[in-house]
């Protein structure tokens, strides 16, 4: 799933084009998958913008703990993102509109680097 959002965001020449392509792709998904994809894509974009040393190219909302979805809110307490070939722990809370096409609220916290020997156990990859 996340690969869809990642490829669209990385391949699009500008932000408006990337957002339009992402929305078209998201509309093809089931609502909960759409929400997860949107929130993961938002996590990568926000980290890229806010924390200059990171350039996320993948995010996994449920790397160490399953996500919790209640209505339009997704809680990812065991997420991870990859930047420069390394994985980092991530926690985020994401609230979307009813269609799960727009993020209304997003808060996140970056954790420590995840040691490579733990990647396979968490379903993470190089």
SSE inventory with pairings:
Blueprint (H helix, E strand, L loop, with lengths): L1 H10 L3 H12 L4 H20 L5 E5 L7 E3 L2 E11 L2 E11 L6 E12 L4 H4 L4
Antiparallel strand pairs: 1-3, 2-3, 3-4, 4-5
Helix pairs in contact: 1-2, 1-3
How does this structure look, described?
- Strands 1, 2, 3, 4 and 5 form a five-stranded antiparallel sheet that branches.
- With 126 residues, this protein is an alpha+beta fold.
- Helices cover 37% and strands 33% of the residues.
- A hairpin with a 2-residue loop joins β2 and β3 (73-83).
- The chain has one domain (2-122).
- The protein is globular and about 40 Å long.
- The model is unreliable at 6-12 (pLDDT under 50).
Give structural attributes.
5-stranded antiparallel β-sheet; alpha+beta; 4 helices; 126 residues; 37% helix
Quick structural overview:
The protein has 126 residues and is an alpha+beta fold. The chain contains four helices and five strands, in the order αααβββββα. It has helices at 2-11, 15-26, 31-50, 119-122, and strands spanning 56-60, 68-70, 73-83, 86-96, 103-114.
Main sheet: strands, sense, barrel? 5 strands, antiparallel
Number of spatially distinct domains: 1
Please report the total strand number as a whole number.
5
SSE order in H/E notation? HHHEEEEEH
Average pLDDT, rounded to a whole number, is 89
Per DSSP, the total helix count is 4
Q: What percentage of the residues does DSSP assign to strands (E)?
A: 25-35%
Low-confidence stretches: 6-12
Radius of gyration: 14 Å
- Binned, the helix content reads 25-40%
User: Could you say which structural class the secondary elements and strand pairing correspond to?
Assistant: alpha+beta
Distance between the termini: 17 Å
Anisotropy-based shape: globular
């Amino acid at each position: 799933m996340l690969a869809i959002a990642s490829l669209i965001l990385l391949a699009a020449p500008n932000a408006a084009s990337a957002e339009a392509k992402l929305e078209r792709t998201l509309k093809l998904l089931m609502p909960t998958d759409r929400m997860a994809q949107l929130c993961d894509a938002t996590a990568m974009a926000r980290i890229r913008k806010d924390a200059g040393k990171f350039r996320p190219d993948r995010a996994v909302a449920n790397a160490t703990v399953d996500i919790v979805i209640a209505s339009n809110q997704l809680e990812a307490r065991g997420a991870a993102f990859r930047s420069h070939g390394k994985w980092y722990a991530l926690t985020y809370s994401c609230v979307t509109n009813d269609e799960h096409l727009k993020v209304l609220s997003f808060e996140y916290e970056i954790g420590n680097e995840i040691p490579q020997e733990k990647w396979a156990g968490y379903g993470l990859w190089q």
